């Protein structure tokens, strides 16, 4: 974390923000995926981004060190260590990094034509660097012979090649799309941010209509929301506010309106989940407790049960507990269906926005109790048929 983005600006390349997070935080995801046990950062000073990286690395169980001179590395790296070197500015998919590191020591390269165009340095007539290498720790001692202001990653690449380490080409699949980038400025980060967000959210074809709608909205606004900070918390607050309105509408006996508001609340909850995934992805070896999101997910279902109960009041003499049994059963079956990919239309069934819209139509027609009973029977039969077909 040493190179400025521009001679006139103090901002380091590693501190350029992508998706609201400094690039070096994305690189920590790569280091965690690679199974690293110690993080050593070459820095100019202990800037706030370095301190934040230190705190997160230690929470993930990594030892953390900073050095200000290349020769200081030899005191931290032994001959028996393996060293994963990440170039300043490299953005790579953590899963791809993990697979490459598993191949063993080597200098990771790519074809010269694509590598130079993407901003990577030339290695030889046919290859450009891929911005990463895995080398034996003993090679660190060679840095002592070099000037104090040498480019450490580039120098270690030359040292590794002179020592006879193999070159390993990064597969085309790993380099495609947002898989492998070199970012050296804010402009470059902004240019790819929309594509990076789309890549992290996954394919729209694999999700339900409700989640697809949320995905489109996030693609349109996520960049500004993520850079503003606390985007997921704002979405969570919106979810609670809309759920309160839904409960108020149900209390006023506006059943259809309450279910429409519940559908909006579910979309808001989905957006909070997606934004949290972009803000703080769960890296390998890192433990995070998303109890807030999980609890709100269950709370939403509890509210939906209550809305159903109010929309279809029990017959006289029926206990409240007995009248709640059917909507509770329905929501549990909905959850169970969503956990079994083999169930036909599992994503559609798990989409609470669609369920709430369907209930709104039924409420307008006065058929809520019949719809709940029918859906419960159909879901139970579907799960049983799926289980039987799989030999369960």
Give a quick rundown of the structure.
This protein is of the alpha+beta class and 392 residues long. It has helices at residues 23-33, 48-59, 94-101, 112-117, 152-162, 172-175, 186-201, 209-228, 231-251, 255-279, 291-311, 320-338, 346-350, 352-365, 368-389, and strands spanning 4-6, 9-12, 17-18, 21-22, 38-42, 63-67, 82-86, 90-92, 106-111, 127-136, 167-169, 180-182. It has two domains: 4-185, Spore Coat Polysaccharide Biosynthesis Protein SpsA, Chain A (Alpha-Beta Complex); 202-389.
Provide an overview of this structure.
The protein is α+β, with helices and mostly antiparallel strands and 392 residues long. The protein folds into two domains: 4-185, Spore Coat Polysaccharide Biosynthesis Protein SpsA, Chain A (Alpha-Beta Complex), CATH 3.90.550.10; 202-389. It has helices spanning 23-33, 48-59, 94-101, 112-117, 152-162, 172-175, 186-201, 209-228, 231-251, 255-279, 291-311, 320-338, 346-350, 352-365, 368-389, and strands spanning 4-6, 9-12, 17-18, 21-22, 38-42, 63-67, 82-86, 90-92, 106-111, 127-136, 167-169, 180-182. It has a four-stranded mixed β-sheet with strand order 7-10-9-11. The longest helix has 25 residues, at 255-279. 36% of the residues are buried. The model has no long low-confidence stretch (mean pLDDT 86).
